[in-house]
Amino acid sequence: MRSFLKYVVFLVLPVTLVILWLSGAFHHRIDAKEVEPPTKTVSGIKVASVKVKDRSVLSFTGTIVPSDRAEISTRNMGYVVEVLVKEGDRVKKDQVLLRIDTKDVRAQIESARQGVVQAQKNYEMAKANFEAVKKTYERFKKLLEEKAITQHEFDMIEAKFKSAKAQLESAKAGVEMAKRQLEALQNTLTYTEIKAPFDGFVVSKFVDKGDIARPGYPLLILEKPPYKVEVSLPERLYTQIRVGDKLTVYVPSLKKRLKATVVEKEASVDPMSRTFKVKALLQGNGLKGGFFAKVFVEEKIKKTIVIPQKAVYRRWDFTGVWVVKPDGTLELRFVRTGRKFGNMVEVLSGLKEGEKVVVEGHERVCEGCKVGG
């Protein structure tokens, strides 16, 4: 009995107390629950708001054209004896641009002048002959009335009278023709001195001193500012574009973005291409005809949600965005995208207007993280 008591006191009781202590019987009990790790804060990210767009900016290919353009040529063939301008020069109306050798033309003019003199002499001779034959004709006419001559004799004189009259008229016409020929050659002389038809710029030069100028072949090309941009637009924009509208034009060769005002609009649509032409007056320097240009036109569209393309997060077949929730934490959300509008993209589902999305710093974000400064 005493051995059993010792066994209980010195072995069973201490072991029982240790077990109870280890099981927490002597400590305050804490309810079991899930342990929440501390929320991570991320910084260095850029956020943008989701917007609703009702207009789209479209880009079209255009060409810079001058207000007026002239290909300068000559009516005479001859050697170019003087070129007074070079490409890029600004010229005034009636300014002499180049001169062509006039020796051949002046020789023709002198010959034509002699022709006028000779034609005048022929006319004087024909007039004198006509006056003489006319007097004889009138005298014979009276004699015929008095029956002093026969009808046959009168007919002979009448035939000479008509012939002399015809010769006089022919000589008179010859004088007029010779004068017109002389005048034409004198006018031709003016084409040996080529002048500018308007104020403008020399954009191309095709001849140098000593070259032969040929009729119908361009010698110089002049352009008159101000410049316009010409562009063909699809017919769906026909009712949206009006004279006076403002457009934005980018000229890559000048690296300039310019403003333009619509000044011309075609009255009809081309049935083959389904487009219509528009010309817009440009404001800017350094422009030249033929320059390539991009013309930006606003188009009214159905209201749609858009976000920056940089906000779209792609991972294999997954397309989504990191959304900043109202409590400032991040959530990766699936979205379905549509059309692109410049640097923006349409969102067909997954977002609402006013929500905020991450556009930069995707490598720093994580699910449930809090956005810091």
What would you note in describing this structure?
- The protein is of the alpha+beta class and 373 residues long.
- The chain folds into 4 domains: 46-54 and 303-371, conserved putative lor/sdh protein from methanococcus maripaludis s2 fold (Beta Barrel), CATH 2.40.420; 74-97 and 195-217, no CATH class; 102-191, Orthogonal Bundle (Helix Hairpins); 222-300, Elongation Factor Tu (Ef-tu), domain 3, CATH 2.40.30.
- The protein is built from 3 helices and 21 strands.
- It has helices at residues 2-22, 103-145, 151-190; strands at residues 41-42, 46-49, 51-72, 78-83, 90-91, 96-100, 193-195, 200-205, 212-213, 220-234, 246-251, 256-265, 275-282, 292-308, 313-315, 318-324, 330-334, 336-341, 344-349, 356-360, 370-371.
- The strands form 4 sheets. The protein has a 6-stranded antiparallel barrel with strand order 3-10-13-12-11-14. Strands 2, 15, 16, 17 and 20 form a 5-stranded antiparallel β-sheet that branches.
- Strand 11 and strand 12 form a beta hairpin.
- Helix 2 (103-145) packs antiparallel against helix 3.
- The chain is rod-shaped.
- The protein starts with a helix and ends with a strand.
Summarize the SSE layout with pairings.
Elements lengths: L1 H21 L18 E2 L3 E4 L1 E22 L5 E6 L6 E2 L4 E5 L2 H43 L5 H40 L2 E3 L4 E6 L6 E2 L6 E15 L11 E6 L4 E10 L9 E8 L9 E17 L4 E3 L2 E7 L5 E5 L1 E6 L2 E6 L6 E5 L9 E2 L2
Parallel strand pairs: 1-21
Antiparallel strand pairs: 2-20, 3-10, 3-14, 4-6, 4-9, 5-8, 6-7, 8-10, 10-13, 11-12, 11-14, 12-13, 14-19, 15-16, 16-17, 16-20, 18-19
